[in-house]
Task: inverse folding
């Protein structure tokens, strides 16, 4: 499991994936913005400042490949763009529905969850908890306005 940029670059190399400048910059961006869960647009707008040959489609295609090799996970955000997560440890998300921030959290009660899934005769590929609400910053900003 690639926890560092160096490891991620190694996985890319081992799988014979071509390490283009774009791909390297996307990985660099993800690993230097850990836990920010950026959208492809955010990655594009940041990287395109330094690399003007980049198009949004290139970013999407590269993210698709990186996902295939397990270097990035997609987070589907209701009512918003797909976000990308390079925290590959098993974790869950707190989603602020006010500012769109996604916060990682760790919690395990695996046995009960597995029982529930097995009872439904469902074969799960992925299971995580998503809690929607208001982050601390949004809550305190709202508090200040009142
Ligand atoms: Zn918020
Ligand atoms: Zn996450």
Result:
């Amino acid at each position: 499991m690639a926890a560092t940029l160096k490891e991620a670059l190694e996985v890319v190399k081992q799988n014979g994936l071509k390490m283009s400048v774009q791909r390297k910059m996307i990985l660099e961006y993800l690993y230097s913005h850990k836990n920010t869960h950026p959208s492809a647009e955010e990655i594009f707008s940041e990287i395109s400042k330094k690399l003007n040959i980049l198009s949004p489609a290139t970013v999407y295609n590269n993210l698709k490949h990186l996902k295939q090799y397990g270097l990035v996970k997609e987070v589907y955000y209701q009512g918003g763009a797909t976000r990308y997560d390079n925290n590959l440890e098993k974790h869950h998300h707190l989603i602020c529905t006010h500012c769109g921030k996604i916060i990682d959290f760790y919690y395990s009660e695996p046995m009960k969850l597995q029982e529930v899934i097995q009872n439904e005769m469902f074969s799960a590929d992925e299971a995580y908890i998503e809690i929607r609400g208001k982050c601390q910053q949004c809550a305190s900003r709202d508090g200040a306005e009142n």
The chain has six helices and five strands.
